[in-house]
Design a protein that fits this description.
0% strand; mainly alpha; 73% helix; YP_001051499.1 fold like
Length: 200
């Protein structure tokens, strides 16, 4: 993802099932952000997101699996936090995690491929907002801030992870073994796109 145009051009060139897998993997990586927020505030229910993700992963290699999209959209909607209800930064990455999954489910239902690839932008946006929220430096203008965010280790890591993920999906046939291995890798790392650990 060093060249932004090249990255999105490649992402848009993927087949629909490849785009789905890419978005599922990013949603899985954002999940710890919601999990920690929910644990700390006792708001919502991480099991809903976890169950939805498990079914989406499974659906990648078990085409007979039917997912009641409306049911899960309603469930996620009922546990999506409202930022004005919480006086803490953690509500925003938690909200993004829920929105990303909602966006993916809606896109699968409507077959709008662009909405699937937008999960990539939402994940990067979560990282950008995190960098800005935790920065105590002052900038003369937006350009300086943008440069700082772009060069920040967390954003460098985000671009690298998305780039690696795209490469894996481009160069491998989607099989049950491939999907299970990718899921295992992301889940076992337990680290979100902003460095939140499932062990925290």
């Amino acid at each position: 993802m060093t060249k932004k145009v090249g990255f999105f051009k490649r992402l848009k060139a993927l087949k629909i099932e490849q785009k789905e897998l890419f978005a599922i993997a990013l949603c899985q990586r954002m999940y710890p952000n919601y999990h920690l927020f929910s644990t700390v505030t006792e708001f919502g229910n991480p099991v809903v997101l976890d169950t939805t993700l498990n079914l989406l992963w499974q659906k990648q290699y078990d085409k007979k699996l039917k997912l009641n999209t409306d049911l899960y959209l309603d469930k996620i909607d009922s546990i999506t936090p409202e930022p004005e209800d919480f006086d803490m930064y953690g509500v925003y990455p938690a909200l993004d995690a829920a929105v990303a999954l909602t966006q993916l489910l809606s896109a699968l239902q409507s077959k709008v491929e662009e909405d699937i690839t937008n999960v990539s932008k939402l994940s990067s946006s979560t990282v950008a907002n995190y960098i800005e929220a935790t920065c105590d430096m002052e900038f003369k203008n937006e350009t300086q801030l943008d440069d700082y965010i772009f060069e920040h280790p967390a954003m460098v890591e985000e671009r690298a992870v998305q780039g690696d993920l795209l490469e894996i999906i481009e160069s491998n046939k989607i099989t049950s073994d491939m999907v299970k291995e990718l899921r295992k890798e992301i889940v076992s790392s337990g680290i979100s796109n902003i460095g939140i650990s499932m062990n925290e």
